[in-house]
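Next comes a concrete protein, fold included:
___
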Amino acid sequence: MIPRFIHFMDEFPLNTNGKINKNQLPQPSDRGEEDNRHASPPRNELDMQLKDVWMRVLDVQDIGIFDDFFAIGGHSLLVVKLEVELEKEGFDCEDLDIFKHNTIFDLSEYFAEKQNGYS
């Protein structure tokens, strides 16, 4: 487990007990990636279909094809939900597929190869 982003701080925000106040820590969305999501639009119908499913599961307004599922709010329970939603859309998918291919781009490439008999 390697962090994708590190935010350096001069000091931690503390509560009255002297413990770290987690509510005042910067959120991952503070790193400016929200604006970059529009830079990687879907390339084709498969990307668009996957994007729609991911946005429903993650409950986000927009997502780019290179956004990492886990970096934008995904976790192991949502992997299961994503798997179910993908199967409803006709994709043959397992939990491990999402862990291995954790961007829309990678998952789209995987499904395309699988459909063509390469995987």
Observations:
- Confidence is low (pLDDT under 50) at residues 30-38.
- Helices lie at 33-36, 45-58, 76-88, 95-100, 104-115.
